[in-house]
């Protein structure tokens, strides 16, 4: 190795490492995440949350005016305050959150209402086959089939990691669908439309898969 | 006749630098490249931080707009780079690259903390330059795939975002060191003048870049 190749080898080495990282780096950040204290990782997301929005402003939650409307195939349209939702049977779970862009957050603690309990309370008709979750963040929405929405780890959450859901995470209520990529877990939900077919949501209209199963959609395969 | 009475000025005086105290370190091309990259870097860092840090994403929630600015600055950076490579002094840039990638015996001794004469770039500057160029190319590569993956899902790779993020953190580290040495550290901050005016103090250069000054003198003597 002569003098000149040392610098070039180092340069090409870094380029190679970076290019390989496109395919391999995910596990490395998992390690990094575990190595960094929570207080630091909440400021600098090592592999933690990113806050993605599509609208021109982030919705603000006002407990006095907030209502969750349930419309469509119900006996009569109903609307719930946050307190109404909290009065329904409470469910708790710990699940991982995976974004389609590659980042993940493991072991998120959620508290909220199961979809089955909500549908029962709302008096959903027997021909309901799909739910469209509409966000206060215009024009965001996304939908699940009834079968998907009734999976045991799907919920309408009002608590995250032991506290109320914060504004960037969808205050006061967001959907949690851990078996699919995060864009299905609509934040700032203020209306649920019950229907017979799952409507294409915001990202579906931009080419993403409606059935966004982890590792088995959007170009991912396992 | 006057020309016989007054001896012509010796050749060397005409070709020697006008002020003996200054020596040219960077041409217009090199300075243009440096400042173009620096401005693009700061614009990309600012918009990137808004996209990346939850606190800032929440504060400035117009993500689509910020993302658009981030992408167009990146495109402008690439275009400016190509323009400089086309219209700039390519011979000089090739010479820079040859110097930067050559880590010689003196450089290796210097890196181990020993005294060793340095060329126009010292070993630390060479490593900074190599890392900066490598990071820029990797930023462009990973950024391109972040953009493409959103449009064609077969180009979503597990580590694209991670590489882009890791480069950001590493670049901030490099930037902090670079700014400290360029603006604050007493023995190196004079170098900033070289990057703004193109020229540095010859006495300073002799002390910190002895091999370069010696080589320049030989060129001048030969002329």
Counting H and I runs of at least 4 residues, what is the number of helices of chain A? 5
> Could you report the average pLDDT of chain A, rounded to the nearest whole number?
90
| Quaternary structure state of the chains depicted | heterodimer
Helix content of chain B: over 70%
Name the biggest interface.
Answer: A-B, 47 and 52 residues
Query: First CA to last CA of chain B: what distance?
Result: 29 Å
- What radius of gyration of chain A results from the CA coordinates? 21 Å
Order of helices and strands of chain A: HHEEHEEHEEHEEEE
The string of secondary-structure elements of chain B, in order, is: HHEHHHHHHHHEHH
Concise overview:
The complex is a heterodimer of chains A (222) and B (223). With 222 residues, chain A is an alpha+beta fold.
If you had to describe this structure to a student in words, what would you say it looks like?
The complex is a heterodimer of chains A (222) and B (223). Chain A has 222 residues and is an alpha+beta fold. In chain A, 25% of the residues lie in helices and 25% in strands. In chain A, the strands form 2 sheets. In chain A, strands 2-1-10-5-6 form a 5-stranded mixed β-sheet. In chain A, strands 3, 4, 7, 8 and 9 form a 5-stranded antiparallel β-sheet that branches. Chain A is elongated, with a radius of gyration of 21 Å. The model of chain A has no long low-confidence stretch (mean pLDDT 90). Chain B is mostly helical and 223 residues long. Helix content of chain B is 74%, strand content 3%. Chain B has 12 helices and 2 strands. Chain B has helices spanning 2-5, 11-15, 28-52, 54-59, 63-87, 90-101, 105-111, 123-151, 160-184, 191-196, 202-208, 210-222, and strands at residues 22-24, 199-201. Chain B has a two-stranded antiparallel sheet. In chain B, helix 11 (202-208) crosses helix 12 (210-222). The model of chain B is unreliable at 1-14 (pLDDT under 50). At the A-B interface, helix 1 of A face helix 4, helix 5, helix 6, helix 8 and helix 9 of B.
């Amino acid at each position: 190795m002569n003098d000149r190749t040392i610098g070039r080898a180092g340069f090409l080495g870094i380029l190679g490492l970076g290019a390989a990282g496109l395919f391999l780096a995910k596990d490395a950040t998992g390690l990094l995440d575990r190595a960094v204290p929570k207080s630091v990782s909440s400021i600098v997301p090592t592999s933690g949350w990113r806050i993605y929005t599509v609208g021109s402003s982030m919705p603000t939650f006002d407990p006095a005016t907030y209502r969750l409307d349930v419309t469509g195939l119900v006996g009569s349209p109903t609307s719930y305050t946050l307190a109404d939702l909290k009065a329904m049977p409470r469910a708790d779970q710990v699940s991982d959150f995976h974004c389609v862009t590659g980042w993940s957050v493991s072991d998120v603690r959620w508290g909220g209402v199961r979809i089955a309990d909500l549908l029962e309370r709302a008096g959903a008709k027997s021909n309901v086959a799909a739910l469209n979750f509409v966000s206060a963040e215009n024009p965001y929405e996304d939908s699940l089939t009834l079968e998907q929405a009734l999976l045991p780890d799907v919920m309408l959450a009002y608590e995250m990691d032991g506290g109320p859901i914060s504004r960037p995470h969808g205050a006061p209520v967001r959907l949690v669908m851990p078996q699919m990529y995060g864009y299905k877990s609509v934040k700032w939900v203020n209306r649920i439309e019950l229907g017979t077919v799952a409507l294409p949501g915001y990202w579906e209209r931009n080419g993403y898969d409606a059935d966004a199963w982890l590792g088995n959609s959007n170009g991912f395969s396992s | 006749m006057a020309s016989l009475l007054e001896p012509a000025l010796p050749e060397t005086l005409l070709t020697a630098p006008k002020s003996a105290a200054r020596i040219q370190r960077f041409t217009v091309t090199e300075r243009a490249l440096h400042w173009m990259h620096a401005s693009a870097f700061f614009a990309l860092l600012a918009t990137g931080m808004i996209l990346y840090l939850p606190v800032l994403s929440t504060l400035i929630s117009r993500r689509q707009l910020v993302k658009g600015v981030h992408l167009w600055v990146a495109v402008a950076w690439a275009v400016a780079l190509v323009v400089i490579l086309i219209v700039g002094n390519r011979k000089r840039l090739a010479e820079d690259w040859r110097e930067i990638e050559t880590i010689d015996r003196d450089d290796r001794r210097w890196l181990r903390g020993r005294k060793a004469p340095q060329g126009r770039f010292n070993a630390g500057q060479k490593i900074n330059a190599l890392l900066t160029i490598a990071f820029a190319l990797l930023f462009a590569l990973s950024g391109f795939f972040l953009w493409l993956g959103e449009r064609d899902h077969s180009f979503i790779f597990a580590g694209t975002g991670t590489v882009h993020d890791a480069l950001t953190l590493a670049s901030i580290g490099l930037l902090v060191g670079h700014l400290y040495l360029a603006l604050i550290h007493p023995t190196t901050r004079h170098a900033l003048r070289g990057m703004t005016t193109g020229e540095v103090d010859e006495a300073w250069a002799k002390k910190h870049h002895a091999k370069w000054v010696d080589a320049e003198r030989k060129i001048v003597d030969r002329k």
